[in-house]
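DM from R.C. (forwarded with permission)

"hey, sorry to bug you on a friday — could you get me a structure for this? deadline for the figure draft is monday and I only need the backbone to look sensible"
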Amino acid sequence: MDMRKLVGRNFARLRREKGLTQEDVEARSGFSQQYLSDLERGKRNPTVITLYELAQALGVSHVDLVVPHDSEE
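My reply, with the result:
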């Protein structure tokens, strides 16, 4: 399992479920839209701190970003 892709898929899914754009998350988190785009495409390897900060911006648990979603198992 490629954790970068898993995190990217989970982040994109959660962001869309919350009705947020990448620009909205950029404003909430301080991470650039380009970084968020790369993250969603599995091109970034976020640190634990980054996962926590992104989860805070989405209003979810950091665990939600690393656990396989039911449809992906």
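R.C.: lifesaver. The two ends are 10 Å apart (CA to CA).
me: no worries. The mean pLDDT is 94.
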